[in-house]
Amino acid sequence: MKKLTFLLGFIMFSFTACSDDGEMGPPGPQGPPGEPGVNILGQTFGDLTERDFTYDAEFNLYAHFLEIPGNVEVFESDAILAYRLEVISDVETWHLLPKTIFFDDGRMIQYSFNHTSEDVEVVITGNFDLDELEDVYTQGQYFKFVVVPSDFVEESSVDISNYQEVMDALNL
């Protein structure tokens, strides 16, 4: 019993003997440098002008070229995300390309794109003669483009298919 009382007394003394009233010691050595942070500078372009596609019978596709504005700098390592406006039940939604549209009769089309540091080409391909494609899919289309560093796309947990989430993450 005496050992138990002594042990409890020692433990209580240990907790009450600690205080921060003493002098502060010298600072410790500098730690190793940390990992460099990611500097993400995103840009956006797309002036919300109606875009009309041109049919290319030789390749059975529609194409539209858009020059990247001079105030937007695109590096070789950057990624460009492209979004197409769709109005569904009077609600405007931006869909990430590529976007495939299936028709009830088994036909399908796909909007896709490619880019350089100077321009973007949006194309419409399909599994039928696209010369028969309705104008609603080829005329008066709206697109937005977001230029993001490749680090952002690789390291971010942002859902890049959600236009607003990408814009918010890049503070655009």
UniProtKB/TrEMBL annotation:
Keywords: Signal. It comes from the Bacteria. It comes from Salinimicrobium flavum. This is Collagen-like protein. Residues 1-19 form the signal peptide.
